[in-house]
Amino acid sequence: MWDSLLCLDASSCLVKYGINITGRNFELIPFGGGRRICPGLPLAMRMLNLMLGSLLNCFDNWKLEDGVAPETMNMEDKFGLTLEKAQPLIAVPMT
């Protein structure tokens, strides 16, 4: 599965093998899978957006993508179990 086990290669963990966290891949058996997957996974997936957003909010060097002003942003919502934006916000880090 991995070419070099003793060398850290972050690209080997990406989409190369088509692995996702839904619990249907045998590569992730140590973390649980199928019916025995971690029961906190849905909560963790919801909290990830909040924690990442809070972390990024601590940094002041962000701007909207080119051609977008705060007054012209699409603020429509997408109805579901949770209320999401119809168009996600795209923020660009300033250098």
Automatic annotation (TrEMBL):
Signal sequence, start to end: none
Coiled-coil ranges from the UniProt annotation: none
One GO molecular-function entry: heme binding
Keyword Transcription regulation carried by entry: no
Keywords for the protein's UniProt record, in alphabetical order: Heme, Iron, Metal-binding, Monooxygenase, Oxidoreductase
InterPro entries: Cyt_P450, Cyt_P450_CS, Cyt_P450_sf
Pfam annotation, one family: p450
PANTHER family given in the database record: CYTOCHROME P450, FAMILY 76, SUBFAMILY C, POLYPEPTIDE 5-RELATED, GERANIOL 8-HYDROXYLASE-LIKE
Family: Belongs to the cytochrome P450 family.
Protein name: Cytochrome P450
Organism taxonomic ancestry: Eukaryota, Viridiplantae, Streptophyta, Embryophyta, Tracheophyta
